[in-house]
Specification:
homodimer; 348 residues; alpha/beta; Cytidine Deaminase, domain 2; Dihydrofolate Reductase, subunit A; 10 helices; 15 strands; zinc (chains A, B)
């Protein structure tokens, strides 16, 4: 790494920390975090990132690399995308490690809302380290969904839809393959790979017999990815033994209940921080009505059906004044289709 | 115009012709056309464009400007976005004028399908002028809808929709204001200004009492634009005398019939080449089922209703295999909303 040739500006250091952090696994109990250490002259002496639960945190990784390069960490400034942790889990507390290494200044891009691990900034300040929360878009974006999940005590819920322009997810006779293009369907595999679990209903499982796996290139004949989301089935009906969701391509949790809140609480305990909801209009409406959807990723095909199933069931909305408005975060064209990434406004 | 300093390459000349042509009025019986004349050395000697029915055609305008600049037109090459006309309408035939001016070479970007005015290229070839159809995206795009209208013998029909993500155009209680943002609604005024007529149904007129006018900036309080589309009402019910569609803000044609084909034939005779369909799901479905829609401009708001009127009525489609697929031509974000420009594939 010839990064040590010229001093870095603070924003460049955090840019680099965000880039490093993005290398971490997204579908992990732990957040993606990157860290960069600069010496007192602003020269890069080490950078690191977190590689998933059970491995070193980003700060530790960066300190380790600085020491491997025989760099002095005393008096250094650390740029970290997330507030350093203050608790001993499977690894020691990072706040302590930074203090012990003599780091003089810690800049972080987002606070850690984790009730167990948070508080690292306060610990460092009390220990006499100059500690500063400085917003940085890319760095904060790395942990946005994770931080919300930790604050809520349940996974971030992304509801995925694939519909025609007229909001249909199936024709009048129930046929629904395929509404969107292969490109959009491959994108769904990518989306799934970013989630710790996929939740569906027994209704969808019985009607469509889906796989809900992640395959290379999103192609049905692609190799199964090493990491698969946990497949979770909500509902009281039994699935046939030969249902794809019960195969050994990925783990599956059959909950025999429709309790969305309980399901999310259980997934949270198991370290799932983001869930993809891939279900029919009734279960989607149930999640929405309970305020359990954070985001909608909507694939819209340039097609009309004029009849057939709608993408969402009754929401109890009867007048335009009560329409459920979402925030548009992204619009991306995928071949013939368009993907909208929308967020549900927070209820305070 | 200091364009005569350096020779232009053929593609540059047609780029310029397309740019000039784009200055013409879009909502006109005549197409937007631009023309550029280069002398034998490739130097610009004149450019022109058509300014609407009753004014000079682009070629005549360009010849006029070349002569005003004391340029020799003998031996010149003309780059024209559309095949020169061969008939005498309110102006003389352009093919003849080009021949008389001694133009040696005519390059045009799209053929004129007009059964009355077409044939200019053949006329010129027979008169010994080197004549060449050479495709150019921007030049051909200027007349794409117009050429299709002339080939069909009816206006190009653009159906405008404004719906929620779940394809609703109104809440369960019938309220529908407003689904889309002010930015999207202003864009509709811009779209209207590009059309010779707006077609609606008595149903929409009675339910919503719309204006269907074009106002500056698309704001309700904006000044009425000088040029307004003809407002056309299809259906058998009478409108109240104080209906906005019967005010004097724009002309209105009340047809007292639901015959879409007859309405379009009449508008074609009156020189309307593009129509905007702003109506409810029943009339839109009737137009679609008769193959009378060429394009859909769909404004989608990031909102969910879960119930209420759908954007399109029954299309007689019961299975996914028969879904009506459209071609995506453009996806544009407009503030919170997204605008899809889709085309109906041709039935051969």
């Amino acid at each position: 790494m010839p990064r040590d040739l010229a001093p870095l500006m603070p924003a460049q250091a955090m840019d680099l920390a965000a880039e490093l952090g993005a290398n971490g696994p997204e579908a992990d109990p732990n957040p993606r975090v990157g860290a960069v250490l600069l010496d007192a002259h602003g020269r890069f002496i080490g950078g690191g990132h977190h590689r998933g639960a059970g491995t070193s945190h980003a700060e530790i990784d960066a300190l380790h690399r600085a020491r491997s390069g025989d760099h002095e960490t005393r008096g250094a400034t650390a740029y970290i995308t997330l507030e350093p942790c203050a608790h001993t889990g499977r690894t020691g507390p990072c706040a302590d490690a930074l203090f012990e290494a003599g780091v003089a200044h810690v800049v972080y891009a987002a606070p850690d809302p984790n009730p167990v691990a948070g508080g690292g900034a306060r610990y460092l300040t009390q220990a006499g380290v100059l500690t500063e929360l400085r917003h940085h878009d890319a760095a904060a974006a790395l942990t946005r969904r994770w931080r919300r999940a930790m604050a809520l005590g349940r996974p971030w819920v992304t509801w995925k839809t694939a519909s025609t322009l007229d909001g249909r997810i199936a024709a009048a006779d129930g046929t629904s393959r395929w509404i969107t293009s292969a490109l959009a369907r491959a994108d769904v595999h990518d989306l799934r790979s970013r989630c710790g679990a996929v939740i569906t209903s027994t209704g969808t499982a019985l009607a469509d017999d889906p796989h809900f796996t992640v395959r290379d290139g999103g192609r049905p004949e692609g190799e199964l990815a090493d990491r698969q989301p946990l497949r979770v089935v909500l509902g009281e009906r039994a699935l046939p033994a030969d249902a794809h969701l019960l195969d050994d391509a990925a783990p599956t949790l059959v909950l025999r209940s429709r309790d969305a809140r309980a399901a999310l609480a259980r997934l949270h305990e198991e370290g799932v921080r983001r869930v993809l909801l891939e279900c029919g209009p009734t279960m989607a409406a149930a999640f929405l009505r309970q305020g359990l959807v954070d985001e909608v990723v909507a694939y819209i095909a340039p097609a009309l059906l004029g009849a057939g199933g709608s993408l969402i069931g009754d929401l109890g909305i009867t007048a335009m004044d009560d329409v459920l408005r979402l925030h548009t975060r992204d619009v991306t064209r995928l071949g013939p289709d368009v993907r909208l990434t929308l967020e549900i406004p927070r209820r305070q």
